[in-house]
Design brief:
Strand order of the largest sheet: 5-4-3-6-7
Shape: globular
Helix content: 10-25%
CATH architecture: 3-Layer(aba) Sandwich
CATH topology: Rossmann fold
Structural class: alpha/beta
CATH class: Alpha Beta
């Protein structure tokens, strides 16, 4: 479009308001673009108010769980989406968590630095060497279509670390975006005939059981409250 540099109508990629406004922008694009390392209080004209400072204080301020004797080093790759604190169920069992995050999240693609803590981020600009240094026991890649281009890049790096891909949503949007056949992606692989593959069904977005907002409320149920006079 024709506009001078000082014209308020200039429309270009990565403008701050685009980074901040949902659905493509929002809290996580803002976090990763500006390398924000602390929890945010975040509100724009096109999204809900998010208070990570208050919401995750009880998790952030609790002590680290001592490593279990049989604890694993687990590298989380990609993004965690909604209720990202659920991964602390692994840390609470004595496993050590690391994070390696995709570059271009949407607002709901939770990426680090995570506001609840207890996950150590690897540097994005030299992640291959960082993986060699950390030596994780397993790579757990997840979750939605935005992470599909990055996950096979890590898989193809040849680290030799067992790789788990947890894919939630979804094949059709990957077809739309043209990422289902990303180079290095094991599309169409099947277990060899006669093998007994290990399988499980795992939901990708529920909150952790320890989340305080899941605790029983002392308030009476709405149906039990007295009706207001008209």
């Amino acid at each position: 479009m024709d506009a001078s540099p000082g014209d308020a109508t200039v429309d270009r990629p990565a403008q701050r308001h685009k980074l901040m406004q949902e659905p493509v922008g929002g809290i996580n694009p803002f976090r990763i673009h500006y390398r924000v390392k602390t929890p945010l209080r975040f509100h724009t004209t096109t999204g809900n108010f998010i208070d990570e400072v208050g919401q995750y204080r009880h998790l952030r301020e609790r002590p680290e769980t001592p490593p279990a004797r049989d604890g694993l080093k687990i590298l989380l790759v990609g993004e965690l989406a909604y209720n990202a604190e659920r991964v602390l169920a692994l840390e609470e069992q004595g496993h050590t968590l690391y994070g390696l995050w995709m570059r271009d999240p949407y607002w709901y693609n939770s990426v680090g630095p995570l506001p609840f803590g207890h996950v150590e981020d690897l540097p994005r600009n030299d992640w291959r060497r960082a993986i060699e240094h950390v030596q994780p026991v397993v790579i757990y890649a997840l979750l939605n279509w935005q992470a599909v281009p990055f996950a096979p890049e890590v898989l193809s790096a040849g680290s030799g670390v067992p790789f788990v891909w947890h894919f939630k949503e979804g094949p059709f949007i990957c077809l739309e975006k043209g990422t289902l056949k990303t180079p290095g992606w094991p599309a169409g692989r099947r277990p060899p005939p006669g093998s007994t593959p290990h399988r499980c069904v795992l939901q990708g977005g529920p909150p952790a059981r320890s989340a305080p907002w899941l605790r029983p409320s002392s308030a009476p149920a709405r149906a039990a409250r007295p009706a207001r006079a008209a």
